[in-house]
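Co-fold these.
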Amino acid sequence: MKQPPSQISSLTTYMLAVRDDRDRTAFALLFDHFAPRLKGFIMRSGTGGGQAEEIVQEVMLTIWRKAEQFDPERAQVSAWVYQIARNRQIDVIRKENRPLPEELGEDPGSEPDASQILAVEQEAGQLKDALLKLKPDQRDMIEKAYLGELTHQEISSQTGLPLGTIKSRIRLGLEKLRYELKELR
Amino acid sequence: MTAITHHAPDALLAAYAAGNLPQPFGLALAAHISLCLECRAAYEAHLVSGGAVLETSEAEVVSEGLKSNVLDLLDTPAVEEKAYQRSGVYPGPVVEALKGKPPRWKSLGMGVRQSILSDGREGSVRLLYIPSGRAVPDHSHNGLELTLVLQGSFSDETGRFGVGDLEVADQSLEHTPIADEGPPCICLAATDAPLRFNSFVPRLLQPLFRI
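Predicted complex below.
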């Protein structure tokens, strides 16, 4: 495994080692981190332990197979894993593929921008802190929303979501997307 | 292309990110996000929130064999999923719903055509083709309707909608979208309820055309 650039989280470093070097040791470390959390997350929506583990297996394999789609300048590792986990859960429950947006074209051959990666991680860290500081009933609501247990009508009637943090994350993401699009043209 | 001015509301984006929209709306959101950078950024921000919920979830011990199982499977080739690319005015998710084929248009009269992509318990989603100056028959809504413009533009009582714009209409809105000057307007229309037309003749046609 390459030496991690200063301060970039170990999860991102492992994920980049999986993406760029197909590093199995790094993948095993990602498994140790995510598999128990994924199992807990999936079981919260009422899925039994056995089926939850089947989904965990699928999610971990997807992380390995689709690693080239991971872009640390746009998504933090757990956000990327969250999307894969929800897709797998929905595919299993509804027996249909959920419509997903087009993938953006790769930024051709550019060096990873450590400051952008750090900014993405920092925003995600702030969001996690904000979540942990919420009152229990508010936190419960947010968790329900992202576990897919609330309809959009129910979400829109909720107040007190930590929207400030989401908004600053949106600005950061938008700058990056605009930059990428310019590079591709 | 003019800038996108009508965006997806945050609650729809959050529910989409969590995978909790009915399939017709999911397709409309996937197509809109494919065209709209702002909503893509907002969608990705919601994924970060989802990631935070995942990170703070209580861990459950996994079975002993799971890790070695997964590690053993790393070299097994995955079934290749076909990735659908954008084709002409149709974003990738719409091309996927069309299974890579061109739309099969059916005439609704007056030059207006539709191509149904899916119609089921969760609602319906279709492509509409409206020549310049023509109206989509005036209709009111039982539920929510999302309309995404893919070519040309239309205007109604609430404003002008160009390529990439998403109109969100609920039962409180009675509107008559009319295609503007220029190329025929093509849009993707998703509803969670059957459409109900106000004018007499189209209502007669309703069972015939599954509108």
